[in-house]
């Protein structure tokens, strides 16, 4: 046990973190996280379902039926991140020595294509306020740094310091504009409106931007409700202080600030498994805040969201049927054997999972127990996009920690030991990547919410190198929300088109066609 001072213990108490938790994190820094053992990359020949027209029609019909019957659905959007990385290249230019951006650079492209930016009017207003001229006049005068400075700096639009959710992403022919937040509302109205037109959404936000989110919602929700003929039920939550992780020195000792206090860092998006677990909803869509498009480009997004929702329900229907068959009272032993064999086929063919405990040479009772364990878990259906760039993290078939089973997992490249040639070769030939397009079933067969924290693989986090006040430190990230935090879920991968994946990672992405009219 670490010798914490009374002040340390008070700090831990204020955050809701136990000394035992910190000790476990310190041990993890010392030992590191193990690489996952990979069986194979998922592909359309090996674990990724390609939905044909007949199945698509069934899924669409099942989703309509669910909504029509008052189905309980919610859209969960991680939205706490600031947009600082989105404007990294802009900050580099503003703070650099050159007065003119390098030809072909990100800053040069933004200045050249100002007219295509949805926030152009906002930028012009900031330029006039700061410099007495709009962006076009400043461009003509070659005052390029003033333009970019008005965009990113606090005295201007402060786009480099705001959350992505409230940035203006799209402009419409009628002169209106929408933020990423508003586009998420629009999207939800088109595939997640339940009985009476009710659309439930939940955004995770940072504490410093909570009030900003609430003001933005108050300004925009009435117009969006009128536009789409729905009624929004929107809730917000913040990442819990209890999910922050301890920081350490490069020697894995407790890192303290200039006042001698322990330093904690956010646990990464994996910490949001707590927020997700607190939500009372049956079906939950998960999608990042920046992966949105304007109305005219949203057709495939809506189509495949409904398809994924319907696929989730069809798979869940089968799970309930198998659980019922497995747990009925049988007069003949062969009836139970038949139910076990049928459920095993489903687990292997639909859930793409192999378990030693389901081997035919294992006792019937052991196989029955394993099937009940597998089928009584949270369920997710995940859209996967064909890899058209550099291979990296994505869908793989990976071994469990004890090596007794293989199941679909969404991995980051850091979880794969690339010093092993076979792993590097598998990654090289991976065909799909993860666009964070999930729909989840979060209640058991009795209608009770799963405690999602019980299904996290704690051995799948990350350690990264950071700094504070010029001093190096090591930071620990919890198992990622759709990675290790969902490791012990039943998972189905479905191929979706690249048109459904349009993230805005840099401001230049807003110049792409999917974000234009």
Helical fraction equals 25-40%
Mean pLDDT: 95
How far the N terminus sits from the C terminus, by CA atoms, comes to: 60 Å
Question: Major β-sheet, in short?
Answer: 9 strands, mixed
| Class inferred from helices and paired strands | alpha/beta
In terms of topology, how is this protein built?
Layout: H1 6-15, H2 19-31, E1 38-41, E2 48-49, H3 53-68, E3 73-78, H4 88-94, H5 106-112, H6 120-131, H7 135-140, H8 144-152, E4 168-171, E5 177-179, H9 180-191, E6 198-205, H10 210-228, E7 231-238, E8 245-246, E9 264-265, H11 273-278, E10 283-287, H12 299-326, H13 333-349, E11 354-355, H14 364-375, E12 379-386, E13 394-399, E14 405-411, H15 421-428, E15 432-433, E16 437-441, E17 462-468, E18 471-477, E19 490-495
Parallel strand pairs: 2-19, 3-6, 3-10, 6-7, 12-19
Antiparallel strand pairs: 1-13, 4-5, 8-9, 10-16, 11-14, 12-15, 12-16, 13-14, 17-18
Could you walk me through the main structural features you see in this protein, from its secondary elements to its overall organization?
- This protein has 517 residues and is α/β, with parallel strands linked by helices.
- Helices cover 35% and strands 18% of the residues.
- The protein is built from 15 helices and 19 strands.
- The protein has helices at 6-15, 19-31, 53-68, 88-94, 106-112, 120-131, 135-140, 144-152, 180-191, 210-228, 273-278, 299-326, 333-349, 364-375, 421-428; strands at residues 38-41, 48-49, 73-78, 168-171, 177-179, 198-205, 231-238, 245-246, 264-265, 283-287, 354-355, 379-386, 394-399, 405-411, 432-433, 437-441, 462-468, 471-477, 490-495.
- The strands form five sheets. Strands 2, 3, 6, 7, 10, 12, 15, 16 and 19 form a nine-stranded mixed beta sheet that branches. It has a four-stranded antiparallel beta sheet with strand order 1-13-14-11, with helices on one face. It has a two-stranded antiparallel ribbon with strand order 4-5.
- Helix 3 crosses helix 12 (299-326).
- The mean pLDDT is 95.
């Amino acid at each position: 046990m670490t010798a914490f001072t009374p002040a340390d213990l008070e700090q831990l108490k204020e955050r809701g973190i136990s000394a035992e938790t910190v000790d476990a994190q310190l041990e993890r820094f010392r030992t590191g996280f193990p690489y996952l053992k990979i069986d194979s990359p998922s592909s359309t020949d090996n674990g990724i379902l390609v939905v044909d027209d007949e199945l698509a029609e069934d899924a669409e019909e099942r989703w309509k039926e669910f909504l029509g019957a008052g189905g309980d659905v919610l859209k969960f959007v991680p939205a706490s991140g600031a947009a600082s990385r989105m404007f990294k290249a802009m900050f580099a230019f503003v703070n650099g020595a050159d007065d003119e951006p390098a030809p072909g650079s990100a800053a040069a492209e933004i200045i050249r294509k100002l007219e295509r930016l949805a926030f152009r009017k906002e930028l012009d207003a900031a330029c006039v306020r700061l410099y007495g001229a709009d962006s076009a006049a400043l461009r003509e005068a070659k005052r390029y740094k003033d333009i970019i400075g008005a965009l990113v700096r606090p005295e201007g639009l402060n786009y480099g310091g705001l959350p992505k959710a409230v940035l203006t992403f799209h402009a419409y022919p009628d002169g209106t504009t929408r933020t990423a937040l508003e586009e998420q509302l629009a999207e939800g109205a088109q595939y997640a409106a339940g009985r009476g037109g009710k659309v439930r959404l939940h955004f995770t936000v940072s504490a410093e931007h909570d009030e900003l989110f609430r003001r933005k919602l108050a300004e925009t929700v009435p117009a969006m409700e009128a536009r789409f003929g729905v009624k929004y039920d929107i809730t917000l939550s913040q990442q819990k202080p209890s999910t922050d992780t301890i920081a350490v020195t490069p020697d894995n000792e407790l890192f303290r600030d200039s006042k001698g206090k322990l330093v904690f860092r956010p646990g990464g998006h994996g910490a949001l498994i707590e927020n997700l677990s607190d939500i009372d909803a049956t079906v939950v869509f998960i999608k990042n805040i920046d992966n949105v498009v304007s109305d005219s480009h949203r057709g495939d997004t809506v189509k495949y969201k409904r398809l994924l929702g319907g696929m989730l329900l069809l798979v869940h229907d089968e799970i309930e049927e198998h659980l019922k068959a497995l747990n009925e009272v049988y007069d003949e032993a062969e009836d139970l054997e038949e139910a076990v064999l049928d459920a095993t086929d489903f687990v292997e063919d639909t859930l793409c999972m192999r378990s030693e405990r389901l081997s035919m040479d294992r006792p019937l009772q052991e196989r029955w127990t394993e099937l009940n364990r597998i089928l009584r878990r949270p369920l997710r259906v995940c859209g996967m996009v064909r890899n058209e760039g550099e291979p990296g993290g994505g869908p793989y078939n990976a071994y469990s920690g004890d090596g007794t089973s293989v199941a679909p997992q969404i991995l980051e490249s850091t979880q794969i030991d690339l010093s092993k040639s076979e792993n590097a070769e598998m990654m090289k030939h991976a065909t799909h990547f993860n666009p964070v397009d999930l729909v989840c079933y979060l209640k058991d067969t009795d209608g009770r919410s799963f405690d999602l924290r019980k299904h996290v693989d704690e051995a799948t986090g990350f350690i990264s190198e950071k700094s504070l006040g010029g001093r190096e430190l090591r930071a620990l990230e919890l198992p990622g929300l759709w990675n290790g935090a969902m490791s012990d879920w039943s998972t189905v991968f479905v191929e979706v088109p690249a048109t459904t994946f349009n993230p805005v990672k840099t401001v230049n992405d807003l110049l792409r066609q999917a974000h234009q009219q």
